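BUG-568 | component: ligand-complex export | severity: low

The export step for flavin-adenine dinucleotide jobs runs without errors, but we want the raw record kept on the ticket for reference. Input record follows.
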Amino acid sequence: MNKADYPVGVRINKVISETHDVKTFILNKEISAKPGQFVMAWIPEVDEKPFTLTGKGKTVSITVKKRGKATSKMHEMKEGDILGVRGPYGHGFDVVGKKIVLVGGGYGSAALLLLAEEAISKGIETTAIIGADTEKNILFADKIEKLGAKLVITTDDGSRGIKGFTTQALEKLLSEEKFDCIYTCGPEIMMYHIVQMGEKNNVPVQASLERWIKCGFGVCGQCVLDPTGLRVCKDGPVFGSADLKKISDFGFFARDKTGAKKEWKDFA
Amino acid sequence: MLKMRSLGIDLKNPFVLSAGILGVSASSLIRAHESGAGTVTTKSISLEAKRGHANPTVIAFEAGLLNAVGLSNPGIDAFLPEIKKVKEKHVPLIANAIGDTPKDIAKVATMAEGAGADLIEINPSCPNVVHKKPYASDPKLLSELTSTVKDAVKIPVLVKLSPNVDKIGALAKTAEDAGADGITAVNTLGPGMIIDIASRKPVLDFKMGGISGPALRPVAVRCVYEIYEAVKIPIIGVGGVTSGRDAMEMMLAGATQVGIGSAVYYRGANAFKKIGDETIELMKEHGYKNTKEITGAAHE
Ligand SMILES: Cc1cc2nc3c(=O)[nH]c(=O)nc-3n(C[C@H](O)[C@H](O)[C@H](O)COP(=O)(O)OP(=O)(O)OC[C@H]3O[C@@H](n4cnc5c(N)ncnc54)[C@H](O)[C@@H]3O)c2cc1C
Ligand SMILES: Cc1cc2nc3c(=O)[nH]c(=O)nc-3n(C[C@H](O)[C@H](O)[C@H](O)COP(=O)(O)O)c2cc1C
Ligand code: FES
């Protein structure tokens, strides 16, 4: 019970540019975590936001796409600056089976890096489909390939890899090979189609969801998924097909900072 | 054993999900009921949407939680469908109403009543926002607020009190005299502050926040004890209850019902069921047949 779950300021040991708008921050802190678990990162006097761990143990890191106020501020931060961290939170991916496929869209691939590492180290045959709208937004494809995964790249505009969506590449793979599990993180509409595809092909899916997070530890109710009452921060962020099928919000609705429910397309 | 009736409503047990915990949506209010909360309370709702503070808004320290969510809510219009959904499942529901003026609060209460809420809880006692006037500590203002809301609705009205006042018994009496049907005690304590030693900055965006959980419990028990001596209306005792033992302590002090909030952090989403089971065990051990026998027994 004697737990302190408040952000503790730690030094940024290193900043790595991954793409034109994605940076990895290596933090001076040890955290043991499961792939897919996240931390809350606090930028003093600005905001605090959730990020999946992309490094654990002695080289803890988070990988951040520049989006709004908080992430823009983070992108200005340098080695030696202080970032507050609390966590790890949520329950991550369950690494199961003998042969699996990972599907990452955009910066969603961040959540798949530690998963690929763990699966491959366990001897699981791993294929990764890494996609983005265009070449410069492909994240971690090379890192995941280097770990030993079979790699498929897709871009909407064909600037790298196969021209098309990750879902098209997945459909083709599923028609050719048998997988024990599909793991995915990316735009929710992409994950929605992947869950449908998994169901059609009888392959279980684990997907990592995003919602507006406040407490991060299951108390405030901000990140709830209707009609299940499941909380992204505590019961997720990774959910399996059985839960995802019950979540009518999945693919369609999310709550904004006030708690009002909106369609995904209405988020600026 | 835990079944009871309070303010005209039959309840499966005395446990109440407190305001601001999980209560953003119908789905989580219903889940809390299914997880053992006899009654559930909505997040505080105002006339217009409120964005609240930036993160960090809720953190835990070694002895409790510290929060300054800032009463974020989508506004009563957007929230009405959530109230209706809760009531479709016949879950006993308290709507927690806030606002800048008694008239605004009464309007929120009226709309919540229209959507099916069973009770109204007025909350002039949040330490995490700058209230326009000290409704929680000034007897005249509290009386005006209570009677304005009472006049506006037919369902029972609870007044939620702050522990951060001099004479909480006298304030409870003021609310009773103004027509309140029950008292919810207490809201969070403080406010308190936590400073990060590396960045040298207060951790919460609002810098300070209300203390709940174990650190609040002895204060809450004392408040309920004093209120019980001052009023005849039922009390929902809230503050730091995380076990059956704590629930029994709160009832001994004078609570008819027991609010549970931060325990969701310490005991998980099933905190209500766990605390309920522990309470039943203790009731057997101490020879109580119902919770009525426990309420106020510390005063005998
Ligand atoms: C569990 C979890 C793990 C995450 N992991 C990573 C990660 O590893 N790397 C990474 O780069 N990002 C990750 N994110 C997303 C990251 O937290 C956001 O990109 C970040 O909060 C943006 O903050 P900001 O202040 O820069 O942007 P903001 O100013 O907050 O806005 C960014 C955009 O998000 C939109 N938005 C508003 N409400 C919502 C909502 N309810 N849900 C979703 N979007 C909304 C806004 O309209 C805006 O366009 C994760 C999110 C979650 C929930
Ligand atoms: C995260 C959080 C949010 C809260 N929000 C509200 C609120 O919106 N309205 C309110 O009346 N009380 C609010 N409270 C206070 C609780 O309802 C309760 O009175 C207090 O936390 C003490 O109970 P506990 O120790 O069991 O949590 C909040 C408490 C917490 C921890
Ligand atoms: S963010 Fe508070 S419950 Fe998930």
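Assignee comment: Attached the raw record above. Chain B touches chain A through 53 residues (CB under 8 Å).
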